[in-house]
Design a protein that fits this description.
There is one protein chain. The chain is mostly helical. It has one domain (2-132). It has helices at residues 2-31, 43-49, 59-79, 84-105, 110-119, 122-132. Helix 3 (59-79) runs antiparallel to helix 4. The two termini are 22 Å apart.
Length: 136
């Protein structure tokens, strides 16, 4: 039974984290409009217009990565039957791997790539674990 709960912790953590990430990204252009002519809805459009984005356009991607990881890790921590820290950090590592893939695929500014990879994944997963276990 513990094994099943631990497997569910990972699956649900990844699902919730991915949904949160996607939801934040999907509303980003409604809050901070992209430059005229830049289509951020497609990979090709984003890649070709990335050089036109200002620092303000990277707020929502960072929030999406951090909050997706946070919500996925906190979900995994709550659901996991054993080794809660390991499951929270596993979610953080999986999202970090996706972040690394993004860095390799999209020519974002180096300042964003560094801050995103260092701050958005592992620290938020650890903070989620600490918050979920605050009263324990």
């Amino acid at each position: 039974m513990k094994t099943l709960r631990n497997i569910l912790a990972v699956l649900i953590g990844l699902t919730i984290g991915s949904l949160i990430n996607g939801a934040i990204i999907s509303i980003s252009s409604a809050v901070i409009a992209p430059p005229s002519g830049v289509d951020i809805k497609t990979y090709e459009g984003l890649k070709s217009g990335l050089h036109l984005l200002e620092p303000k356009h990277f707020i929502f991607p960072f929030l999406a990565h951090a909050m997706g990881t946070f919500m996925g890790a906190i979900s995994a921590t709550i659901i996991a039957a054993t080794n809660k820290l390991k499951f929270a950090m596993f979610i953080g590592i999986l999202f970090l791997m996706a972040g690394i893939a993004n860095v390799m695929l999209l020519p974002a500014p180096i300042w964003f790539n560094i801050s995103d990879l260092i701050l958005a994944y592992i620290p938020t997963a650890f903070f989620a674990f600490k918050l979920a276990n605050k009263n324990k």
